[in-house]
Amino acid sequence: GQVPFLSENVTVRIAPYKELYHYSSSAVTSYAYREYVLAAGTANQTLSYRLHQNITFAGCPYARLPARQRLSVTRAFALYDGQEHVLRYALAARVGSARDDAENPPVNPCHDSTHTCEATARCQPGAGMEYTCECAAGYRRDGRGCREVDECAEGLSQCGPFTVCLNVPGSYRCECRSGYRPAEDGQACVPVALATDPCEDGSHPCAPGDRARCLPRAGGRPACECLPGYAGDGINCSDVDECAENPCHLAATCYNTPGSFSCRCQPGYEGDGFQCTHGSMQRLTPCQHEQLYPRAVLPGPSPVGDGHVPQCDEQGRYRPLQCHGSTGHCWCVDAAGQEIAGTRTAPGSTPPRCGSPEPTERPRTMCERWRQSLLEHYGGSPRSDQYVPQCDAGGDFTPLQCHGDSGYCWCVDESGREIQGTRSEPGSTPPCLPSVAPPSVRPSPRPDVSPPATGTFLLYAQGQQIGYLPLNGTRLQKEAAKTLLSLHGSIVVGIDYDCREKTIYWTDVAGRTISRASLEPGAEPETVISSGLISPEGLAVDHLRRAMFWTDSGLDKIERARLDGSERRVLFDTELVNPRAIAVDPVRGNLYWTDWNREAPKIETSTVNGANRRVLVNKDIGLPNGLTFDPFSKLLCWADAGTKHLECTFPDGTGRRVIQNNLNYPFSIISYANHFYHTDWRRDGVIAVDKETGSFTDEYLPEQRSHLYGITAVYPYCPGGK
Fold it and tell me: Where are the LDL-receptor class B repeats (predicted)?
């Protein structure tokens, strides 16, 4: 919504006020006149407004409602949240009976909704407490109410020939029958003229089909386009002689054919004509080829001088400086071995300086890519308590890294990994050397809370910690919620659970790692993937195959590995823009993931080995943040922060239906029993949704308010299946 514009340093003062509410069997109404003051220093401006409220509800026949109640507001205040760009308005108020009727004169029933007119009739106030019930246009009197007139059924419509009359509330409309369209006057309907396609009936002017193609266009006139291998305007197309451009290998002959060409290696050479090698030898570069086989046997001029045998480097490329073995002349050549004009020197003189490389743009280093990824994750401007990597001028990690303005600093190796034992307290800085060898495993802090007891519970990621929220059936046991793991300096995003080993796995976009921790007492976190990650987000564990899958929105990849980090491989690195959530169906061996590419969001699927990739959903979705596969109902469900929908479909994309269409800003979702549980960035909490009715049944808002990321459910057993 919108709020009025206020100049800087202006205060709005709203004095205590009272409102009188009038009750009927199905409505509450209120009229109010209020004043408020704009204070700017010593200058005050008094303004006012009128407020008319009409609240309808489904009445209870056994309820005894008061005729009036008074709302007394003792304090009103506003709070602006700059991070969420939300203005919150609050009241300190109480509701009580309105005993003093002397100051509240009688109100006409039309104004306080105590009239007996039905919803289809309009209440017209009269003198004093009198009123009448009137029908709107398109409705007919029926007792105390009004009945809608069906103009189509009663023959009252004005629709003309070739039309269909459609009744709508209070009116009707006319539509043309199939095969007809509205006439120019907008009143009648005329037959639709069937347009002919010149490309189909052969009346187009294009060249024959073996030389050109006919393209239909709106308006009837087609376009003509020559086929590849032909040139012209589409009406006249002539064959292109591709051999004139020497497309074949030096040791091959080119043969032009209508619309195409072919290359054939010369006798003594083998290959496809585009690459030819002598006999069965390995493929040679042009420079190596000229060294072994004199140019005299091949047609065309020599690129580096008659009778000259070129000098090649270790990779088989022409050396920038070439000198003739017998004449003593020297000159510079380009990458193709062609002499560069003006560089030839006489015998006995100083050879020219060749091969100065052209300046190129340095590719971004790992430190710079990680820094950019975190800055984007923080929305461009990190808070003072958020970590951002420090890179030197060459793009390498500076040996000393510090965590925002917290005062904590530590040394890192060349890969940006913290060197064990170097972290210092605020006020002292550790001496860091860039040559210190990196540790084999990145150290992780111990859990500061003992593992939870058995039973079903939820685990959710909240910045630098993983929270524990037990379930009593499907109800949230909010009073027993607590922190399971504290992970200083981390941003935990994706989270999943291995039911066989009772181990949780999570991704960390700040540390660029994937880690795990057993729920057994005394267990410590262990990093299983510590390299080759930029922004790991979604994570899914396959407890049957002992494998995990994850998305990386910084590298635009989907990868898999065994649960110990071994046998890692890339499944997909193309046609991905912003991959986020990922889910696995271990029994059927299928993988599902979302891509919230704002230009073309989608949900895709493949096998767990990366085969049979295809788009499952790409219509009517906006920001598919959360994704879950329910092993019991066999449904794939997602939460969309763009459309605000929670939807489900069968794994083949059929049977799509909306469960809830009024979510706030969901991030991650998990299915358990007859409920969905999702994390929400507007509420900064865990929200419970009933699967059957789609209604919100419960919510948990942690005391520490910050964004919640991934969520998963932990069962005391593994789902069945092999």
Answer: 502-545, 546-588, 589-633
